[in-house]
Amino acid sequence: MSGQTQRLNVVPTVTVLGVVKARLVGATRGHALLKKKSDALTVQFRQILKKIVSTKESMGEIMKTSSFALTEAKYVAGENIKHIVLENVQTASLRVRSRQENIAGVKLPKFEYFTEGDTKNALTGLARGGQQVQLCRAANVKAIEVLVELASLQTSFLTLDVAIKTTNRRVNALENVVKPRLENTISYIKAELDELEREDFFRLKKIQGYKRRAMEEQLAAAKGFAEEQVAEKVSLQKGISVNAAHNLLSVAMEKDEDIIF
């Protein structure tokens, strides 16, 4: 139906009406819950967006500091500082692990860094530039912290964006399609049931009228038969004709007198 919300193709009965009403109640509750979920996700989405903006603003300064620290370390310790560091480092001391955080039924991935093993090596930069190497290491550790936090926020941001869009589509579908369709179906069933009730009432009235007329006809026929029997009896007893007996009975009925046989 163009320009109108369609209704379900159902049989208009009381049972179906109860089922559709139950579905409407479920759709209303589901719409309310999804709306609350969408609001909660939107609040979390905005908070993450603010954190992303602040983290990106601080990341520029931190990355600049780490870059200058690396340049200073190379200047003090020499260009071969890279080979010296790689020789003294066996395994990575900073690692990243992931976990999940549940926000209104949506699982958001969270990344966090942790240290494992010895984080310092006293032999690195022992010849020269040891202090600058340690400062460079601290600056780059700070940069890694910011990058891990930003990666966590960006991943949560994208996940929430998809979840909010999906939830809003469901909310709009329930609000603009499912609920109006169920309401139109309920209105249609009620109208059909009212029409059937009026038809039943009209049919019962007609049947009562037919029965009343049939009963009146039977009573009239019985009365005529009784009058005919009485007229024949009076004509035999009085020795008059049947028509005269009828006239006599009519006069007696008008005067409300009893006829003596």
TrEMBL record:
What Pfam families does its record include? ATP-synt_D
The Gene Ontology terms for molecular function here are:
proton-transporting ATPase activity, rotational mechanism
Keyword annotations for this protein?
Ion transport, Transport
NCBIfam families according to UniProt: V_ATPase_subD
Task: Write out the similarity annotation.
Answer: Belongs to the V-ATPase D subunit family.
Q: Which PANTHER family does the annotation name?
A: V-TYPE ATP SYNTHASE SUBUNIT D
This chain belongs to which protein, by name? Answer: V-type proton ATPase subunit D
What's the source species' lineage?
A: Eukaryota, Viridiplantae, Streptophyta, Embryophyta, Tracheophyta
